[in-house]
Every structure is written in structure tokens, then in C-alpha cells.
Amino acid sequence: MRVAAVETVLPEHHYDQHQITEAVAAWAEADERLLRRFHEAARVSGRNLALPIEEYEKLKGFTAANDLYIGTALRLGEQAVRGALEASGIAPGQVDQLVFCSSTGVATPSLDAALAQRVGLREDVKRVPIFGLGCAAGAAGLSRLHDYLRAWPDQVAVLVCVELCSLTVQQDDHSVANLVASGLFGDGAAAAVAIGGRREEAEAAGRGGSAEARRGPRVVATRSRLYPETERLMGWDVGEHGFRIVLAADLVDQVEACLADDVSSFLGEHGLSPDQVSSWVCHPGGPKVIEKIAEVLALDDGELDLTWDSLQRIGNLSSVSVLNVLQETIARRRPPADEPGLLMALGPGFSAELVLLRW
Length: 359
Prior knowledge:
five-stranded mixed sheet; alpha/beta
């Protein structure tokens, strides 16, 4: 398949990091010196939030937070899908599959049902809602689009990821994990439109063999990796309080122990080594994770600049972030034709998702 377009949408409420630090310290009754230390270490300059910042202190209980999640997620998701479709030149009625990923709220029917109707997708669109993959879901979602379009190469598939991390922050949780999360995660949505290889060939033939091409990369192959006995490295503890974050301090140790070998093995199956890959589309999990990825993969020539830039500008948007980095790569640093690239993200499980690209 080829990625035809990616669109990121952020909520309208933007705040500098110091404003968020002050607000969290006030309504969470946290140690402001400790909170400020964690927030500064996140290397985030500002974030977009689902609500005006003064509204969070009034937000009590999971029901209220989830109701706000549903309304805001639908609005942002619709904007992202419409934007991606417009950029790709694909009409809503041409979409055959819709994959929806989110881990920061719940609904049944899943939100893709309402999104499909809002955007004007066909009544026979195939819906695939995915919950619980967290930060890995953007990469995993692209992989599932690739699976589908290998089977149906004349069709079109859309991925939409929506995460409203700010609505999950626990005001009475003074754990290190929650304080770190309150300085790292932001809110947003992203959508990617993908077309099957046969459809792309037919479009090219319809243009009389024109060399015109969509600017996104092709997906060559994918790899999912689940690491045993690592369930408590990251995720949620779910209860009447809502989603309480699990974020282990030794997460970076798992990245160091496994990632380089997994990446080398995956690339090797396709006749490549890491030093032959010039384009790295990596999820901005946080400063320590990004630094460890750079270290174990020997990336020291600015290969992760767009990942750092995404983290600094808007924070970690969970599943949305890797799609944002992909969009920025297409717009600002698109490699030459035929160059290989690797898109990857890490998430709960603990797990890794790898996507081999060809530009």
C-alpha cells in the first residue's frame, strides 16, 4: 500500500509548559518543586489540551471525563479524517475500511461508527476499532491497513487515532508516574489515508502513465513484537477513578535490551541493515526513550530531529504522535525515491511495532 496523506489536528487550547505546571500544582496539591523538575525534564515547550486549563480542577470522576472524551474525540477525529481525505484526493464514498485507535476513553458503539456517519463514509465500510495499544497504536494501525490492502489491493483504507491524555490525569495520584505523565502527554488526533497497489496502478494508467505520485511512502512489510512478562512496564490501572497510569522507571532498560536486535533482524529479512536506512519515523515516547533509541541504533546524525521536534512542540500524543512525525517527514524531510525508511513505536504489552517503508 501507499500512504496517500496524513493529517494531524490539535485542540484549540494551547498552553506553555510552565502554565500547565502551575495549574497542575494548584489543583492536584502536588509538590511544585518536584513537579517542575519532572515537567522541565520532559523537554516539552507546550501542549494542546482538550479543555481550557481552568476546567480541569472542576473535572470530577470517570463519567464526566469520559463524556468529554467522547464529544471531543468525535470532533477532532472528524476534522482529521476530512483533512486527510481532502489532501489525498479521495472522496469519503471511496473508503472501504476504517480503523479507529484510541486508549484514553471508551464507548460502545465504538466512536468509528459515529465518525463514519459524520464524514459520509458508505454504509458498508468495514470498521475495526482498536483499544489498548497505547503509544504503539499509530504504527500498529498502519500495519493493519497494510494487511487489509494486501488482500484488497484495489481499495482504500483510513486510519484515525484520537488520544485525549489530559482527561486521564488523576488529581489525587501523587505517584512519580502520574507527575511525569502530567508533564509529558498531550491531546490530539491524526488520520492517514492509504491506497492499495492495484488501485494506484490503475490511477497511474488513467493519467496516461504520468510520473505523478503521491508523496507518502509505500509500506513494504511490518513486524509486531510482544515481550513476555513486561505487562507492568506501561499501561493503565482501570477502576472507578478511571485510567490511572502505569509507567515503570526501568522501561528504558527494556528498550536497551531488545530493540536493536529486533530492528536488525527485521531489516535483515529484507536485505537491509540499520546503517542503510536514512529515514527514521519514531514515536516521541519521552527524552530518555528517544535518547536510548538513538544510542542502541547508533543514530547520531540528526535522524531523530523530527521526533524531538514533535515532542518539544506538542508533547507525547500517544498513538497520534508517530503519525504526526510521519506527516512532518513527508512535508519537511521527504527522502529521495526508493530510499528505505523505518517507522516504529513502543507501547503497552510491552510491545514494539515496526513498519518498513519505501519512499
